[in-house]
Amino acid sequence: MTTLWSATSTESEAMTRRESRKEDWEDDGRTIVNMNVEGMPGYRRDLDTMTVVRAPEKKRPKEQLTSRETRMILFASMKWAFLFSAGFSLIMVLFILFCIKVWFA
């Protein structure tokens, strides 16, 4: 077998690379997302009844912002909105000037 792969590497090197990749990964058996959804290929209705319902986590009480913190957030968001609007307006004005002076001249 004379291919570029066999000419550039040996089988023993390829095996060590494959084996090292397999050793790094270990399955702990947890399900991150249940992909048994109705309408998907391979959907099994009997698996839906077997799902375990977990107890809801305790909710942390929400922290109330002070009026000073609320004003700071409001002014910061308004500042960025005005900055974005000014940048967009500047680009539009430059485009119109380009059209009038260069493109249509």
Plain-language structure description:
This protein is mainly alpha-helical. It has a domain at 77-105. Helix content is 57%, strand content 0%. The protein is built from four helices and no strands. It has helices at residues 4-8, 11-24, 45-48, 67-103. The protein is extended and about 70 Å long. The N and C termini lie far apart (67 Å). The mean pLDDT is 78.
Task: Write a concise synopsis of the structure shown.
The chain has 105 residues and is mostly helical.
Features:
105 residues; extended
The average pLDDT score comes to 78
Please outline the major beta sheet.
Answer: none
Q: Per DSSP, what share of the residues sits in E-state strands of 2 or more residues?
A: under 5%
Q: Can you count the beta strands? A: 0
Indicate the low-confidence ranges by residue numbers: none
Q: Topology, please?
A:
Layout: H1 4-8, H2 11-24, H3 45-48, H4 67-103
